[in-house]
Structures
1.
Amino acid sequence: LRDLYFANGITMSPDRSHLVFCETPIRRCSKYYISEERVEVFIQGLTGYPDNIRYDGNDHYWIAMPSTVTTLWKLGMKYPFLRKLTAMAAKYGFDPMFMK
C-alpha cells in the first residue's frame, strides 16, 4: 500500500479476504483485498476523525471517532501554519476547541 494518510486502525474481515483500515486526516476507511492486492473505499466523508476500527462478529464494523469535524480542524488541514499556531496556543492554556 502506498500514499496512506495516517492509517489509524486496522481489522481483518471475518472471511479473511480483506483488511479494513481507516485514514484519520481524510476521514475515510478502505478495504484492502489481500489476494488481489486491490484497495477500494469502504466509507468516506465521516462526520469525525476515525481512530480505530473493530469487527463485532455480527456483520458490523465499529469505528471510533473521538472528535468531530470543526471549522478550526478544516482550516488546519488546509493551512499547516494554522496547525502549528493552534498547537502553540494549546500549550499555553488557550483552548482551540472554541470553534465548534
Note: The longest strand covers residues 38-44.
2.
Amino acid sequence: MIMPATMAALAVLICFGGNYLTGQSMMERPLVVGLVTGMLLGDIKVGILMGASLEALFLGNVNIGGVIAAEPVTATAMATTFTIISNIDQKAAMTLAVPIGMLAAFVVMFLKNVFMNIFAPMVDKAAAANHQGKLVMLHYGTWIIYYLIIASISFIGILVGSGPVNSFVHHIPQNLMNGLSAAGGLLPAVGFSMLMKLLW
C-alpha cells in the first residue's frame, strides 16, 4: 500500500500546494483533485466521477476567518484512493469524505494558527534587517513544511487505513452497503442546499 499512499499524498501536494504557487488557480477543488488522483493511480474515470460528486458536496463549503468548515483536498484524495484500491461503491466512499474533510480541517487550522506562527518572528526579523534572501528562504521553506505535513495526512491515512477499510468493506452486509450508497447519493444535494443557504 506504499504506492497508493504515496500517490494520494502527491495529489494533495500538487493540488493544494500548487494552488497557492499558481495564484489561487482553483487546483484545490475536488473536481481537479479527483482527476489528478485518478491519473496518478491509473483510473481516470473513477477519479473524475469522484471529483465531480465531491465537488457538488463541497460546493457550499465556505471558510470564514480562521475557521475551516472542511478540507476538501485531503477528503477527495483519500476517498478517491479508497474507492480505487478497495473497489467499493463510489457513493459509499463519498460518506468517508465528510469525516476525513473535517478531521483534516482541524489539522490545517492548527498548522495555520499555531504551528506557522513559530516562524512569524523570524520573518519579522529578516524583514527588519532587509535580508531578502532569508525572506525568500523562509517563504518557500515554510511552504514546503506546511504542505508536506498536510500531504502526510493522506499518506498515513491510506497506509494505515487501507487494511481496516478493506476488511470493514468486505464484512459490511449488502443492505447496509445499499444504505451507505443511498446516503452518499444524497450528499451532493446537501452541498447544493448549503450553497443556496449562503446565496439567500
Note: Residues 1-165+172-187 form one domain.
3.
Amino acid sequence: MMIELIEIRLCGLRNLIFFVVLFQFSCTNETEEAISIVWENDKAVALQLEKLSIYELGNSQIEVRLVQEGNRVPILGELKEEGGMIIFSPLIPFTRGQSYAIYNGDKKLGDVLIPGFDPNDSEHSLVEIYPTQDSVPENLLKLFLKFSKPMREGQSVNYLTLIKGDTDTLSGVFLDLQPELWNEDQTLLTVWLDPGRIKRDLIPNQKMGAPLSKSEKYKLIISSEWKGLNGGVLDRDYSKDFAVVARDSISPAPQEWQLEIPRSASKSPLKVKFEESLDFSLLNEVFKIISHKNQEIDGEWKIGNEEKSIDFTPDSNWNKGKYKVRISSRLEDLAGNNLNRLFETDLEIQTSEQEDSEFQFIEFEVKE
C-alpha cells in the first residue's frame, strides 16, 4: 500500500530521532484498513485510518514506525478519533523519501512510502544575505541567509567560511548553535557570530578577541556543497564582501525616526525611515498600526532598501484621524541592541530607572 507524506523537521539534532508512543485499544477487526494522508500547507501532518474506530479497536496497540535500514523505530504523536476514523498526527511532520509502517498490535495495517521531491526541482539558490548593506558594525551579532528552497539543518557551520583581507581564513567566528535557528519552511537561517567574543567583558573575547575588527574588509563564502532538504545542492558558491566600521553602542530610537504620512481615502503606504539598518528577521514581526479606537489596522508590511525603512500599505483606505505605530521593544539593530537596552548591558546590575517597556509608540495623524 503506497501513500504520500512529507518532511520532518527536528531542529537541533544532526540526525532525525523518533520516540515511542503506544496507544491502548481492543482489536476485533482483522481486515486491513485503508490509509490516507492529511496535508496542511504542503506538509503531511497526519495519517488517517479509514472506517476504523477506537471503539472497534478496544485493547490493542496502534503504532506508527519509521522504517530505516531494516529497523522499525516508533514515533511520537497524537491519536484521536474524528468522523468515525482514526487520525495519527506525529509530533513533527513526516519526512520525504522515508517509509513508515502502521501497526495495530502485532498486525501490520500497511506501509507508507513518502514521495521525494521532484528531481527536476532539485536546484537551490541563495536569494539574499542580510544585512544587505556593504558595511557592518564591529559588533555585528547576526547574519541571515535566505534560500530559494528548504535546506538541510544542523550543518551550516560546515559550509560557511569567513575570510579577512582576502587571505586570512578565520575559525571559531560563527556560533555552532544547535538547534539552528531556521524559519518554519527552512528557507531562512539565522547565523550568529559568537556572542562570547563580541561582549568585551567575557572570557572568549579576552582570549580570542572580537570576531570582526574595525577598518578591515571581509568576505563571507557559502559553499555550493550545502545540500537542500531534497538532496539537491546550491547552484554555485555564493559570497558577500563587506567592510567593518565602528561599534554600534546606541539603541534604536523610534522617536527619531521619520514618517511619510499618507492622505485619507487612499491606500498609499505609510513610510517609516530608521536611518540605520535593523534586524531583518525582527522587522517582519514587531510592527503594528493601531487606530484611535485601539484597533489593529490590517495591511501589508514591506521592508525597504538595506533594511533602513519599512512601508505599511493598508487593506482598506485610510480614514482621517489619529493612529499609532506600535513597535515591540524586541526590535534590534545589527549589533543586537534592542529598544530597551544595549546588547552588552548586564541584566543583573540593571537599575530601577531602566525599567523595560514592552512596546514603544509613534503617533501620527492622517489628514484629508
Note: The chain is about 5% helix and 35% strand.
